[in-house]
Each structure stands twice: as structure tokens, then as C-alpha cells.
Specification:
The chain is of the alpha+beta class and 204 residues long. It has three domains: 58 residues, OB fold (Dihydrolipoamide Acetyltransferase, E2P); 77 residues, 5' to 3' exonuclease, C-terminal subdomain (DNA polymerase, domain 1, Orthogonal Bundle); 48 residues. The protein is built from nine helices and five strands, in the order E-E-E-E-E-H-H-H-H-H-H-H-H-H. Strands 1-2-3-5-4 form a five-stranded mixed barrel. It starts with a strand and ends with a helix.
Length: 204
């Protein structure tokens, strides 16, 4: 099994990155490929090597927690790799784990691809199997799970702060907001808007 890759990212698309491993390009599907675009030089991507009769795919994550949670999620009936990626794109590992511990169905059903029955199955199947994922934040009470929903169309300040933390300038952010503000919908989460913003910044 391929557990991680280390090398430069040479290409990004909406769903995956290409990592150059000594002249061989590995396609790695990620929750948010554009989050890697600020990384220069070699990166480490923790992977899950997924094999079935009609496909061999690599799924990759920036942290061990995301890798571990992905592997737990795909053990749940009805959750395949693509849905698991959607879950990780919609919530942090700590948020998802805490929601499962607290049986917070409202939180879980806001994640992409998750309905009420699947949320209930996640709680039933995983509640006692997630030790070690995000424990430092959960046990100290420093993390409160939440998905910021754009009910008032005002998630941009939160997204802007996140982008500034990645190193983007006020000028860059003001420029893309002029286009992005026309593509924000009432039910968008901050993560939805973040992904669109990162894509715009990457493509120019």
C-alpha cells in the first residue's frame, strides 16, 4: 500500500493534483486540491491506495488525521471514496469526529452527499472507532463543531481571513471578490466559497 508521497506538485485540477515522483506523475484525488497551490518545492501527501476491479486510485490528504478519518468513513455502508472526500471538503476532521461523538445529525447532514440515514449510520458505525483523530482539540474543548452557513450572504469575512492566513494580499482578495460575490448562494458554506476563491486565485 502507498502510504504517502513526497515530491513537488506539478499540476492541479478541480478534483486532483499531480505529484512528480522522480519523473513519474501520480494523480492524487484530494478534498481541496487548490489548497496546495501555495506550496513550493516538495510536499508530503498522506495517501490511501484504493483498489477495486475496475479502478486503481490514490486519494491524498495534508494530515494524518484526514487520512485516518477517510479510511474510517469508507468502512461505513453507503459511503464510497468520493462521498468521503466530500465530507472532508465540507468539515475538518475535528468537526466531523466531534459531530459523530455528539450525535449531531444537523451538522452531519450539511456535509456534501450525507442524508439523515447515512448520518445515523455514521454515528452508529463510527462513534466508538475514532480514537486518536483530532483528540487534542476535542478533549480540551477547544473545538466546537460548526459549519458556517451563508444564510445572510455574509461568509466572505471568514473566507477572507482564511485566505489571508494562506498569504494572499488585500489587493488580490479585493480583486477576486468583485467576481466571486456574484457566485455566492444562500446555502453556501464558508468552505464552498473558499474553494471557489482558491480556484480563482490559482487560475488568475
Amino acid at each position: 500500500m502507498i502510504d504517502f508521497l513526497r515530491g513537488p506538485i506539478v499540476h492541479l485540477e478541480n478534483e486532483y493534483v499531480i505529484v512528480d515522483m522522480q519523473g513519474i506523475g501520480y494523480r492524487v484525488f484530494c478534498p481541496n486540491p487548490y489548497a496546495w497551490m501555495k506550496e513550493a518545492g516538495e510536499v508530503t501527501i498522506y495517501t490511501h491506495h484504493y483498489v477495486r476491479e475496475d479502478a486503481i486510485q490514490l486519494f491524498g490528504f495534508p494530515t494524518r488525521d484526514e487520512q485516518k478519518l477517510f479510511r474510517k468513513l469508507i468502512e461505513v455502508s453507503g459511503i464510497g471514496p468520493r462521498v468521503a472526500l466530500g465530507i472532508l471538503s465540507g468539515g475538518s476532521p475535528e468537526g466531523v469526529v466531534t459531530a459523530i461523538y455528539q450525535e449531531n445529525i444537523t451538522f452531519l447532514t450539511k456535509l456534501p452527499g450525507i442524508g439523515k440515514k447515512t448520518a445515523q449510520r455514521m454515528i452508529l458505525d463510527l462513534k466508538d472507532k475514532l480514537g486518536g483523530i483530532g483528540d487534542s482539540l476535542i478533549t480540551t474543548g477547544l473545538f466546537a463543531p460548526a459549519i458556517s452557513t451563508n444564510t445572510s450572504g455574509e461568509v466572505w469575512p471568514e473566507v477572507r481571513d482564511g485566505l489571508k492566513a494562506l498569504g494572499y494580499t488585500d489587493t488580490e482578495l479585493d480583486r477576486i471578490w468583485q467576481t466571486l460575490k456574484h457566485e455566492v448562494f444562500p446555502d453556501d458554506t464558508a468552505d464552498d466559497v473558499m474553494k471557489r476563491a482558491l480556484k480563482m486565485l490559482y487560475t488568475g
